[in-house]
Each structure stands twice: as structure tokens, then as C-alpha cells.
Inverse folding.
């Protein structure tokens, strides 16, 4: 910035800080918002008011009298004693588009670039139980993720990638049992036993009713599928995270950091309760529950949110559910930078935003991280932008020094104060959800949905009034911008995907498919039967995702909200 602009800015700062009735109105510099000034009351994104200075009096737990050690209850400072000094977080870039073949090529490329885990994005038809050739799938195949309609697609998706050598996260919910069955069938065909397979199915259906919308069945029936998957993994796939309770999508829909934390943990409580009702013992499955949070721009609030989350979950598991195994008390989580903060305007600036967000996740102690690419507000990320996003993680890990010590912001009066306040505010919301009968009853009364909608509305008002600043949108705008190239779904290959399905149906053992689907239908009539083995049998017979989903639809019906 030139000296004349610096002086102009400083002059504006003085005028904003100390208004003078004789001074003239200053013209905004570079599209700077007209009301941009340092306000007397500064707040976090969750509306927590901040003082100008934090000292010992700010920390309610009295640092000198309370020593929290990394790797020990309540895990505020991290779930491992050495944290990243012992092992870095998993660099897991979320990816999937067009066809299984093209997505497989991207996975191989990212692994070659140093990515340490895979994360699969499925297209919308796959998420809601329709094959690629279904009439309702038209126009959506391969657009926001990879289409997987059968075991054959899953085989192609992981062609040349030994499943025992990678951890795979699958963002899938309503059809999670089917996609996990496809994945396990591939592992079996590759010659691996289920106890060698590591990864995560999101399998978090409650947040779909609250904020995301890719549900199929009524909540109670969906919860049966969720807990059947959890039970199956507890006994058969012991190193698999059978559920990843997600706050990400609620935050993207407009929730504050406090709401994200509270609603996510409340959903986690609901899953625990349902699993216990099904007969599982708390320590047989609790250590395989993971979480998925967003990291947004308010650096210190995000760090404090992650620290508070660990402490709250540790107390919930130890004292509410009486878990005895310390591993059951640990909150392990994946983080993704905030898609909702990405702008189409000045898209290169998104790299700055996501790097700050990634730093917050790391300072907060995440176990796994995805950094969004700079062009995702415009379309599917290009290979170069996906590489840059991965490089941001690698620079933070290997050049910044943030991984050299555990919980580097511990003892900061600001961080400790925010950690306490976020915990207290989130607990108030959890207590209210409990008073409504729990997360399922609350969402059926539309409590969480209403709270998120109100927060989203307030956020939009703050943007439109310039109270909230977004560079390139309502401040420091540029003129005409060149739109960078983006990836479009390959129409020709999508047609090939549909033709493959037709060929599959013609060449498979039709009688075997029919008998496996019939056995699944019969099992669904008994509420005491775990249906995962039957779904796996259907998958191995090459029944399609849509065919298996239709059997579930016939039994459960569809939920209309």
C-alpha cells in the first residue's frame, strides 16, 4: 500500500475513533465500507462480546490451580500426549466427480502429491438412493460427487488402491449401509479381512433432517439403519469409525459456532442412547464415534470451540453415560474449511481464508483436515487448485512450526476465557434439547432448524449492513474479473456410466440378486434383526444401490418434511 493510501487510512482511523464535529465526511478508500471503524463493542461470530484485554481475572478456572494435561481427561489440550509431535493430522482432501474412473485418477494423483487419506464425495442420486439411470437422477449424475450405483462402480473407484493401506472417509448418510457394504465387498475381493480396513462412514442422519436434506426414510427407521451399521462394525470392522457426527452442515446452513457445537453433541447423545437401547455396551462402540466440524474465519473462537468440544464430550461420556474406557471419553474429529465463506469474487483470496481456517483447526487439535480449493465457489476444483489446497496443509505442517508443540495457545487468557464461555453457552442449548425430549423430538418440533434459520438471517443482515465484512463482496471490490477455468462433469462419460448399469443388469446372476433382495425384505420385518449382513449379501450379488434402497423404501416409506 502506497504511503498516501496509508496516511489516508490512518486519518480515517483517527476520525472514526475520535469523531470531530468539524471534520468532513471521508470518502471510502478502495470500496471500503462507509461505516468501517473500530467499534466500542467487538463480538465474535457467535455474538460473544470481547473485551479489549484479557488477563488472569478473565480465566474462570484459575490457571494456577487447574492443570490440564494433553492426553488426559478432560482432553481440553488434546487427546494425545504428544499430539502432532508424535504424528501429524491426516491430510484428507474431499474429492469425487463425473465417474468412478475419473475420481480414481484424482485419488491416485492426490496420494502421489502427499495426501495421507482419502475422502469420497458422492453425487446427489447416490446420496438419496437412486441409480444413475433413474429418471430422477437426470442432470445430477456426477455433478457434486462420484456416482456409485453398484459394487462394480466401487471396484472401479478404488482400482489399484489397496484398501488396507489407506484410510477412507465417505460422506454418506441415508445410504451409508449400502455404500459401506460396497466398500467392504471391494476389500474382500482385494483379499483383505475386515479388521484390516480403516476409515469412516459419516452415517449421521439427524443433521440431514436439521440442515442438509438428503434423508430418505422417517427418523426412527433411519436411526435403525444407523445403529445397525454401528453394531455391525463394533463386532466385524473394529477399526472403522461407524459414525461421524457432523456439525459442518449445520454451520454451513447458518448456525453459529456455539450452535454447531451444541447441536452436534446433542445428536451424538441421541446416537449413544439409541445404540444402548439396541443392546450395545457403551465401551464396545464409543471409541469408534468420531466428529466432523467446520473451521471458519474467526480464528480464536474456532480454536476455543474445538477445545471446548473435547472437554464437553469427555464429561458427557464419563459422567452421563458412565463409560469406563478412557478411549470412550476422547472426542476425535475431522475438520473441513468453510465452503460457505468462499467467494466467486476475487477467488484467489479464498486461499488466504482457507489457510487461516486450516490454522485454526490445527491449533484446535484436529485429527484430520480438508482444505477447500480456491475455485470451489465456481465449480469442481481443478487439479492445480486441489494441489494448492493440499500444499497449504503441508506448509502449515512442515514450515510454520505449529506442530512443534502441543496446544500452543493453551494459557492464553483469551483462548481459555472463550473456551469456558463457549462450553457454558453450548451446555445451555444441550440442556434445552434435553428438556424437549432429546435431539430427535427437538428436530421434529423444528427447534434446531428454527434456531439455525434465525442465525442465518442475522448473518445476512450483518452482511447487507456492512457490519460483517467480506473482502471482494462488500469491501475492496475489484472491477471486471477474469473467471478461472473450472471442471465440468464429463457428459460423454456419464452416458457411459448409465450404459454400464444396463450391461451389469444383463450380465449378473438375476436369480441371485432377487433372492438376496428378498432375504433383505424379510429381515426388515423383524426389528431385532441387524440388516447389515443382508445388505452386504445384496452388494456382493451386484444388486444396485437403487434396488437395495427400493426394498428399504417399501418397508419404511419415505419421509416428507
Amino acid at each position: 500500500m502506497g504511503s498516501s493510501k496509508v496516511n489516508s487510512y490512518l486519518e480515517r482511523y483517527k476520525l472514526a475513533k475520535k469523531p470531530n464535529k468539524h471534520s468532513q465526511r471521508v470518502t471510502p478508500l478502495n470500496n471500503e465500507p462507509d461505516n468501517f471503524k473500530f467499534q466500542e463493542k467487538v463480538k465474535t461470530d457467535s455474538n460473544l462480546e470481547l473485551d479489549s484485554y484479557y488477563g488472569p481475572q478473565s480465566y474462570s478456572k484459575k490457571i494456577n490451580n487447574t492443570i490440564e494435561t494433553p492426553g488426559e481427561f478432560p482432553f481440553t489440550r488434546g487427546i494425545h500426549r504428544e499430539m502432532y509431535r508424535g504424528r501429524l493430522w491426516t491430510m484428507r482432501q474431499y474429492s469425487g466427480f463425473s465417474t468412478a474412473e475419473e475420481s480414481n485418477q484424482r485419488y491416485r494423483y492426490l496420494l502421489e502429491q502427499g495426501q495421507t487419506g482419502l475422502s469420497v464425495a458422492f453425487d446427489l442420486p447416490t446420496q438419496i438412493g437412486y441409480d444413475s439411470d433413474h429418471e430422477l437422477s437426470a442432470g445430477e449424475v456426477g455433478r457434486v460427487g462420484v456416482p456409485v450405483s453398484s459394487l462394480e462402480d466401487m471396484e472401479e473407484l478404488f482400482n489399484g488402491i489397496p484398501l488396507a493401506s489407506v484410510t477412507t472417509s465417505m460422506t454418506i448418510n441415508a445410504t451409508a449401509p449400502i455404500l459401506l457394504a460396497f466398500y467392504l465387498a471391494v476389500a474382500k475381493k482385494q483379499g483383505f479381512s475386515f479388521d484390516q480396513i480403516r476409515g469412516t462412514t459419516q452415517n449421521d442422519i439427524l443433521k440431514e433432517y436439521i440442515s442438509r436434506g438428503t434423508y430418505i426414510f422417517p427418523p426412527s427407521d433411519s436411526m435403525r439403519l444407523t445403529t445397525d451399521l454401528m453394531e455391525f462394525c463394533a463386532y466385524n470392522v473394529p477399526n472403522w469409525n461407524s459414525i461421524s457426527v457432523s456439525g459442518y452442515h449445520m454451520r454451513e446452513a447458518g448456525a453459529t459456532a456455539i450452535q454447531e457445537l451444541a447441536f452436534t453433541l446433542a445428536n451424538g447423545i441421541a446416537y449413544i442412547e439409541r445404540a444402548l437401547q439396541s443392546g450395545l455396551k457403551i465401551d464396545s462402540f464409543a471409541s469408534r464415534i468420531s466428529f466432523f466440524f467446520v473451521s471458519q474465519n474467526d480464528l480464536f473462537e474456532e480454536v476455543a470451540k474445538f477445545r471446548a468440544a473435547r472437554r464437553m464430550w469427555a464429561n458427557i461420556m464419563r459422567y452421563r453415560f458412565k463409560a469406563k474406557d478412557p478411549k470412550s471419553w476422547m472426542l476425535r474429529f475431522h475438520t473441513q474449511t468453510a465452503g460457505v465463506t468462499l467467494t466467486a469474487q476475487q477467488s484467489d483470496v479464498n486461499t488466504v481464508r482457507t489457510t487461516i481456517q486450516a490454522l485454526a483447526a490445527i491449533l484446535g487439535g484436529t485429527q484430520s483436515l480438508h482444505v477447500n480449493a480456491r475455485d470451489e465457489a465456481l465449480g469442481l476444483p481443478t487439479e492445480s487448485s486441489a494441489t494448492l489446497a493440499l500444499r497449504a496443509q503441508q506448509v502449515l505442517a512442515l514450515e510454520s512450526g505449529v506442530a512443534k508443540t502441543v496446544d500452543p495457545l493453551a494459557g492464553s487468557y483469551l483462548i481459555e476465557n472463550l473456551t469456558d464461555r463457549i462450553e457454558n453457552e453450548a451446555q445451555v442449548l444441550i440442556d434445552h434439547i434435553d428438556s424437549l425430549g432429546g435431539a430427535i423430538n427437538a428436530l421434529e418440533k423444528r427447534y434446531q432448524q428454527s434456531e439455525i434459520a434465525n442465525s442465518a438471517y442475522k448473518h445476512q443482515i450483518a452482511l447487507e449492513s456492512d457490519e460483517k465484512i467480506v473482502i471482494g463482496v462488500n469491501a475492496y471490490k475489484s472491477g471486471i474479473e477474469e473467471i478461472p477455468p473450472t471442471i465440468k462433469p464429463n457428459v460423454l462419460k456419464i452416458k457411459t456410466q448409465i450404459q454400464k448399469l444396463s450391461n451389469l443388469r444383463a450380465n449378473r446372476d438375476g436369480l441371485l440378486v432377487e433372492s438376496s433382495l428378498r432375504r433383505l425384505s424379510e429381515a426388515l420385518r423383524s426389528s431385532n434383526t441387524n440388516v447389515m449382513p443382508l445388505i452386504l449379501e445384496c452388494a456382493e450379488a451386484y444388486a444396485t444401490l437403487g434396488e437395495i434402497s427400493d426394498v428399504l423404501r417399501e418397508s419404511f416409506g419415505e419421509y416428507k418434511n
Summary: The first strand starts at residue 42 and ends at 43.
